[in-house]
């Protein structure tokens, strides 16, 4: 609570933690995580997040957003209370209620997720192997809002987390026959509000709405209703927030005397939903006011007013970045952001910094942090080595075949339980995921090979936070893997099979950005370039025309796909892109950027929403190309490593209170 009040965590993070404490879980449809309906405007062409009229009243349950409906539910409560006095069955003689079902139950969850496997099958089982009536099926957000707040006296549901991050639930990708409504329109994809350009943009804007100043100010009222003191007792009665007794935490159907009542109560528990555990007995305190006011100079998206760019290096809300620190490190080639917010490690060529799982070390001594080690390759004996301590000889990890040399290496030095902190790509196209464990007797190495490429590995990136690994080869194949199970997920589309030079994954969106060489194409050159078109690749003729228009003027092309292979957009770059990364500021209060390092030494920033150009950061008195770029762990700094060994740190003026910047050679960390 304290973290939320002082702004250390977002509304999203706080609500998900409350759901966990309240017993809600993705593993139980009856106790699925619940989030509030936040918006009330699903018809305007432009959504104004600064206007209170755009939001629902968070102090009232969904069923009584319209004040004229309050008396209806009060009458229901009074009628049940009168029936109790007349001495009905033990089941009915329990606490009277305003609503017949809860705001979250299996039916409501499946209503939203009916288009997404495996929830489709669960929905059919729930509905006796039938889809719902077409007019009642989730087909329009505006209709859903209207039914809950005006037309339907029994529909009181709130939202599920997926409506804030999973655009696939709006698409009928499986081609389900959901029927035809009475107006003659077939139920297919969900109709989106006019202010949302597409399903992905809706989830991004919806997430911004959840973090809006109005929601932050009034969110404690909703928490009081769902998790707090207004859940039960007189406060619940005053708030018109009383649900059937069987939906509350601790209800035991077996305590009823009659068998009929026990059976009926058990069925009600299975279908009506279960309320979260009551976490608060007093009103929830409010958050401290946000003193940072968003700039209106550069709008985030044409369909929304009041969305925030956030506070990260290069943000349009802040001043242009300037160099605040620089250091020359001989042989510098790659950068690794360290857990300390203003620190970066610099590795030389043919070396990589990894987090080492030390079985012999005491976690208390390491403050819970995994020790670091330096991997090196390219030695004359073709053996990959591991340096754990400066005063100890390196450990020998594994031998590299002389005919299959290493072409790409990616590693993770941040802690977080990444199962394979080292991934190696070879000239044959083989990708090897390596786990290294340090023991008192030495090191134990476990490696697993991934086989999906027929050409040399050109790009690798692993995202421990999302459990994803992406690999790319020079012939244009881009493959996504599950980092935990090392299983194949999918191959990303690549029109014309352009050669891939770099890939990266967004930690916050899980989007995949790939950099392509526009000066050459491998399309069908060797018979292995044919890729079956993905149904999710919705890049249209307009995009194809854009990419091919005056292509000779450009050297690189950046394409972005979602984790489910849906095309987001592309942008052509005049200069050759030599490295790429995402910023990692919290979603909802930020719109992150794609940072592309150029052969000229400059950095171009693009919006992660629509790849709109945001800013050009000029090179600091050097003509050398950038070899590596990375944002700091809090995205307040952007670090760049140049071919001459110069490492610089950029920061937007006024972003944070000045503090020392640490640029540390990797070999000095252990």
UniProtKB/TrEMBL annotation:
Pfam families: Beach
Protein keywords: Repeat, WD repeat
InterPro entries (UniProt xref): BEACH_dom (IPR000409), BEACH_dom_sf (IPR036372), BEACH_Domain (IPR050865), WD40/YVTN_repeat-like_dom_sf (IPR015943), WD40_repeat_CS (IPR019775), WD40_repeat_dom_sf (IPR036322), WD40_rpt (IPR001680)
Superkingdom of the source species: Eukaryota
Domain BEACH: 1-287
PROSITE patterns per record: BEACH (PS50197), WD_REPEATS_1 (PS00678), WD_REPEATS_2 (PS50082)
WD repeat extents: 450-491
CDD domains: Beach
Spans annotated as Disordered: 521-540
Annotated protein name in UniProt: BEACH domain-containing protein
